[in-house]
TrEMBL record:
Pfam families: TPR_2. GO terms for cellular component: actin cytoskeleton; cytoplasm. GO terms for biological process: actin filament polymerization. This is Tetratricopeptide repeat protein 17. It comes from the Eukaryota. The keyword Repeat applies. Gene3D superfamilies: Tetratricopeptide repeat domain. The chain crosses the membrane at residues 9-28. TPR repeats lie at residues 279-312, 687-720. Keywords: Membrane, Repeat, TPR repeat, Transmembrane, Transmembrane helix. Signal peptide: none annotated.
Amino acid sequence: MTKLRCCRLLFAFFEVILGISATTHWVVTENGIIQSMSDSIFQMQRPYDLLSFLEQGNRRDSVNKLFESMRSRKAIIDNQFVGLHSASDVENGLHMSDIDCLLREQYDVELDLHHSIVLDGGFREGITQDDFYLNDVQIEEKKRVPDCKKTFPLDFSMHTFEHLSAMRDRKKLTQQQENGLMKYVPPNMNLSDLGHTVAYGLMLNNTSWLHLNLASIFWRIKGDAYNALECARRAIVKAPRQHRDIPLLTAGGILHAANYSSDAAVLLHTAIEYAPKESMHHLALANVYAYLGEYNKSIEFYDNSLKLNPNLDMSRSAKHNILCNLKLESSLSALHQQLLDILTELRAYHNEQTELLSFQEKILWEDIKQMPFLTSQDGIQDESLNSILTSRGQSCMQRSGDESILSCDIMSERQMLAQKLQIDFGVSLQVLKNVENQAKEIRERMTKSKITSENLDHFSQTPDYTKFSTVFMEPTGRPKYHNLEIKESPEPFEKPDWPSESYCESLMPFVLDVKQYVPVYLPPENKGYVTYLFVSELIGIDPDKEHPLPWYPPVCQVPKSFDRKYIPPELVKATTGYNLPDTSLTPMLTALVNDAEISEIGQRILTATNSKVAAPWVLSMLASLHWRVVGKPRNALDCLQLALDSVPKKFRDVPLISIASISHKFSLIDNALLVTEEAFKINSVEPMTNFLYGTLLHIKGNYSGAIHHLKQALRVEPHAMSGHATTMLQTIACQERFSTSGPGSSDIDDTTTWCIGITDLPEQVNKYNSREDESIQCDSDGKNCKRVECFAVSTDADFLTGV
């Protein structure tokens, strides 16, 4: 035993020795004099300042880490710039190489998705020119116009699709004049003559579908959607089945021109059902689908029209035009994503430069004579700056006079360092602005003027990164549970006979699944942070004003590695690709900005993060909350790791509880319990922490420990977790009461097997899927069957109290 103790002491001694690190500052010269090294980091102007002296080593380490991070990030940015083309290069390259773009140029047909397409029926079998009554029309001094509403009443018809919103609101329809339909006006006849002729034909035969269809064309040319649709409706009703597709095409064109394109598609599909071999119907429907953005369908109907009429250059040109535009949009979208990725890295690089400038300010304030550990670093400057930054601090100019004199000023190491950082800072800022302007240009091309110039200007603005420190880096309010001593409350759950036996019996069978996952989020507000200000006033947008478009989600940078103690690989793997939102957390997110959409709140969080208006770890917590609400726990873990990296130790329980809750969601109970215990050690008062702790202990079978922590949560917050804590406490207390005297309880060594009996009718037993730790027990007569669940629980006192 003595030898073993000696070995342990020896091992501990070597551990201490090996763990010691030191920095040489004092040296003995050749003359035997002890003096400080000139290039030591501790060569300070005020060596008597003990705190600054002790902090200098940490400052050196921080700067070295910052340089390494910047060097790595710059390599990433350089790789991202390789092969990057401008939007013009992408567009020109596609137009010169893609077959669809080349074929589009062969057809001198401009793409017009509202191109006027009608049929007058003159070419159909069984219809002659005499049917139109275009000759022998009485000449009158005042030209008539066709008023289809006076021909015959038509309030409702099954053939005219009265259920469509455009039909119901036809009196409100508006459209532009369709001068392209003038080609259907007979030669030597103007528009007023056509109207007079059609009106005369309707006088002779007020149910002539040909004249009603021509009247609809007349009103479309005039730009009167309501009268045009009234004529088309009557033409549909009166047209024979073999010709009904013609007025349906006319009516569909009216609705499309009036921007009711979805309703127009319904009519055109019906027209195709009546006349599937009519190429113009397919062309019209293809234009409608292209306008609606359903390009696959539009290509299908363009192909159909070309099969029916190979000479239809309008279809062929439109098809190649759309395919070319789709490829261009895809290429621009990929380029835009590349630029966004570069922007993310540039902004992160810029943030690190800002942090480096703050170190520079600290260095100048400390009045350090030399900082070789700063000036000796290389690899972070842009190659274009090498000639500037290798001048060794000489600034020379030629003075005029009788003799040519070259005057040079020698800068100190501190001045040269400041110039290096400021030049690189300015160049990085300019690159950042250039990339953002490029992204803005591509967005303008892709969105087809859907974003206003005001919003685009807002998109291109670079946040003020010089405000590295703000008052909101620390809590500005009083913590919610500051120095709180938990005492027994006057609530009924403190009574020894609570809940009553009759209440517990009423729960049989237990309907509530108290092991069900309940999302838990410990808000930074509990620590004194006023988070709603971070996403409103501090970013310059009032809560009642909408954040300018576009809205992007608050994506957190993927950490190089996760803290395996809290976020093990199995948790990362389990959350990858998972898309089930924690909707119960939505009120916490929407409380940041009342009446705002979740996507807008996400953009506000992103803006606050980029602008560094508050403590980064708090903003990372808000971003993690957003991702949990939208159902992306993998993204939430990225944000939570960032929060862990920068959160002060006294607030570390905030991200830990979210990590534990996500672990609970994916049934990684041991990890969830470990992380919750860490959070509990930091702050044992938080009701969220006690609720989650109690929930996890119950899952592990520790009823007493679960009850203890749930009561602690309720003593601090009587309505903790919106009543979930009270409901869970009641049910677990009843389960514990029945389990101590229920079937199958016995003491073996240091463990107790607790069984919970859940009564079922015999014929209902089979509907339950028993787990491996469950069995079915019945009386000897086969009645009073129960599904029994058993737990083997240690009777150790510490385990039962959950400590």
